[in-house]
Write a structure and sequence with these properties.
- This protein has one domain.
- The protein is about 85% helix and about 0% strand.
- α1 runs antiparallel to α6, α3 packs across α5 and α4 packs across α5.
Amino acid sequence: MIAEIIKYSIPSLVMLAAVYVMLRYFAQHNEHQLSYMKDEQALAKLKLDLERKNSSQKVIIPLQLQAYERMVLFLERINPPNLIKRSMSVEQKVADLQSALLRNIRDEYEHNMSQQLYIGETSWEMVKTAKEDVARLINTSAAKFKTEEEAAVLAKDILTSGFDAHNDPIEKALLQLKKEVRENY
């Protein structure tokens, strides 16, 4: 009877061991395949991210460069000689010229305000400071005259008392914009 049990048990044990070895082999093989698939998915994700970044750069870089160009143009347009030339008219009074100059600065600024998304924070702050300094110069010069005087006296005072070469906020902002473009592109 023991021989009979051994006669049936040994083939069963051999079969059980073979099944165990095969299942273990398949489990390891499946684990390697799963690991390979995860690595492939990670690689595919990296490729997609890189492609997305490259395609967004193709859109963003021109927008950023355009923002720098627009900020340079803004600074040139609010530069007192250019601003006065565009705003002054015949028989204009001090109050009218002051109002026109400040309105032009405000309109130009509002038109270009969205460009802060594309330029650096330091550059944007310098652009804002330049705008505020030009407005302050206009108001300070206008305070020296009666509102009904000829606008030419205000224009002359703004141009003569303007910014000195070492403390020109427009020039500083322009230099910062140029520096930032050189560093980033």
